[in-house]
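Let's study today's protein:

:::
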Amino acid sequence: MLRKENNIVNKVIAENASKYEAREVVEWFSDSIEGQQHLSDMIDRDAYLMEGDPHTGQSFTPLQSDLLFSRIERNIRLSQIRKLSLRVAAVLLPLLLIAGFSWYINSRTSLFEGTSYTELYIPKGEDARIFFQDGTEVFLNADTRIRYPERFGLLRREVWLDGEAYFNVKENKRRPFEVHSQNTTVEVLGTSFNVNSYRENDKIRVTLDEGSIAFRTQHNGYTLSPGQLAEYDKITGQLVVTNLMHPSNLSLWKNNVLYFYDSPLSEVISVLERRFNVEFNLLTPEALAYSYTLTTRHQSLDSVLLEMQKIAPVTFNRQENKVYVSL
């Protein structure tokens, strides 16, 4: 199928295609991942050639293309510079055709920039897994909102996050992937990482499993290596980077595993409220002095609370969707 589409694309560029074939190529570029990738590769090759040739350092608009074609035609009529004009035309025509054809496709498909956005919210007590059109895989934790374009632009891929998500980004060196969240940005080319950025939390945590990412805030930035955790305090503006022995533990939630390591009870309560869509009521404030280290594949909230009662002398009394905490 791809070989057939290549033949039709070549005919369109050579101006030997029918209107039906041209429309078929436009629809292929617009509606399929393979077509979008093919167009991206064509333009990447064109950009590479233009970067390597000192005489072709800029792109052409359709108006510039028409003017240049007219100039070439006039020069060809002049016998004194006939050979020179033919050589110039042989170099520029393929580039102009690609540029003009790209403009034509963009004007009809909005492929070059995302103009329509989708917003997805995962409520408390649930999680989700989605795939973007570029092949990127995303796991979304409970109480998480993500906003993304229906089609990524050709220059970069951007999403906006409020909550927690784990990304397996499809590598594309010419189209960086960016995650924006509360005045911070994570920029990647192709890697696996976890972002914990709930709006009500004081800190944003980014953990890198594989690859390399740049984590930028309003005040500073840092390039993370695998196994590192970047923790940004939204109140003080301080960014702290630490090395982890087992960084993947912080994203065990995507496998339905609860993981706490020396976590204060207040943080544990916040996680459980999102995970099970319940409300905790603190009857004894002194209970907040305790911390928990626990790894469990949670089947139910009751089983998790029983495990927690074995760790510290804190009692959890559940009544439907409310849990009362006391000593």
Residues 54-60, 106-110 have pLDDT under 50 and may be disordered. The domain at 117-246 is CATH 2.60.120.1440 (Jelly Rolls). The radius of gyration is 27 Å. The CA atoms of residues 197 and 204 lie 5 Å apart.
